[in-house]
Write a structure and sequence with these properties.
Layout lengths: L5 E3 L2 E3 L3 E3 L8 H9 L4 E3 L16 E4 L2 E4 L8 H14 L4 E5 L4 H11 L6 E5 L6 H4 L7 H14 L4 E5 L6 H10 L4 E4 L3 E4 L2 E2 L4 E2 L6 E4 L4 H14 L4 E4 L5 H10 L3 E4 L2 H5 L3 H15 L5 H4 L6
Helix pairs in contact: 1-2, 3-5, 5-6, 6-7, 7-8, 8-10
The chain binds flavin mononucleotide.
The site of flavin mononucleotide (FMN) has 26 residues, from strand 6.
């Protein structure tokens, strides 16, 4: 009988699926609902110290092979978010990952220190959002030194194990992975959205997103995500949450074969509904059953052999 349980650092997920950051993750009650619907772990939307309204609409649009978004890191700020994450931690049947972001190293440390009050199972450090570049400059994740500086600052203050979320928009993701692991990252999440990209409405001859550009997600980015996870697995020895274009069980298996310990799902909630976590788990189970795999661990990284 295949076993979907997945050991991730100091916790065991009931299955390898994880709700990715930014999808149904603003409120504690929605995180709990996704966990009840079958996610092995759930991640909050990224939280910063202060309230941010994000970009004006339109902030998300579907194209032939995925989604493009420029939400602009909207957040209620740390005070409201602490009560939402606390609610999720108390009521969720699955581990809760609190995602944080900031505009500089010092504020990454401050927001990470405050989130301890909510007692999340893990903290995820979003150093990789590509759709606020005009506001924040290049994402931290594009430079090994700044990636390491943020990681060690968060690591010094966080009571929870630290997951660092990387960007695919770099020439050598192995370099960034090594720098964050050397700086103390307990795990890596890869990837954030690809881009930025642009979609133009040919009737008005204008970009659709108010921000003009946004991060690309969904099926279009899966091969990039699989390659990033493959590269990271070959470079460092920490668990990886593989994210990017995972829509069904076969996509999740690809991620696990590339080296992922757990598999993030974001855009597929749009395609397959909130039941996507149970559906993907069932599809993974069926594949394992027909291919004689008994555990997720046994499948991890097989593409490297
Ligand atoms: C609407 C939207 C909002 C997002 N917001 C965040 C965020 O706040 N923090 C973050 O780390 N990633 C954010 N992401 C990126 C996702 O967590 C994920 O890394 C990316 O979408 C690729 O996975 P997918 O193809 O399964 O969607 C967001 C993605 C989307 C589509």
């Amino acid at each position: 009988m295949p076993n979907l349980e997945t050991a991730f650092l100091n916790k065991t997920f009931s299955n390898p699926t994880v709700l990715s950051s930014g999808i149904l993750g603003v409120y504690g009650s929605s995180l709990v609902r996704v966990a009840i619907e079958g996610a092995g772990a759930v991640t909050s939307k990224s939280i910063s110290l202060n309230y941010r309204s994000g970009h004006p609409n339109p902030i998300i649009v579907e194209f032939e092979a995925g989604l493009i978004n420029a939400v602009g890191l909207s957040t209620h700020g740390i005070d409201d978010s602490i009560s939402e994450i606390s609610y999720a931690v108390k009521n969720s049947p699955s581990p809760v990952i609190a995602s944080v972001f900031a505009d500089n190293v010092e504020n990454f440390a401050l927001v990470s220190q405050r989130i301890n009050e909510a007692n999340p199972d893990f903290i995820e450090v979003n150093i990789s959002c590509p759709n606020v570049e005009s506001e924040f400059g290049k994402p931290f994740a594009t430079d090994p030194k700044t990636s390491a500086a943020v990681t060690s600052a968060v690591k010094k203050v966080s009571k929870a194990p630290v997951i660092v979320k990387l960007s695919p928009n770099v020439p050598n993701i192995k370099l960034i992975a090594k720098s964050v692991v050397d700086a103390g990252a307990d795990a890596i999440c890869a990837i954030n959205t690809v881009g930025p990209g642009m979609v133009i409405d040919i009737e008005s001859a204008k970009p659709i997103l108010s921000n003009k550009v946004g991060g690309v997600s969904g099926p279009a980015i899966k091969p990039v995500a699989v390659r990033c996870v493959y590269d990271i697995f070959s470079e460092v020895d920490v668990p990886i949450i593989g994210v990017g274009g995972v829509t069904n069980g076969s996509d999740a298996i690809e991620m696990i074969f590339a080296g992922a310990t757990a598999v993030g799902i974001g855009s597929a909630v749009h395609y397959r509904g909130i039941g996507v976590f149970k559906k993907v788990s069932k599809e993974i189970f069926r594949f394992m059953d027909t291919h004689d795999y008994s555990s997720i661990e046994e499948m991890r990284g097989l593409a490297h052999e």
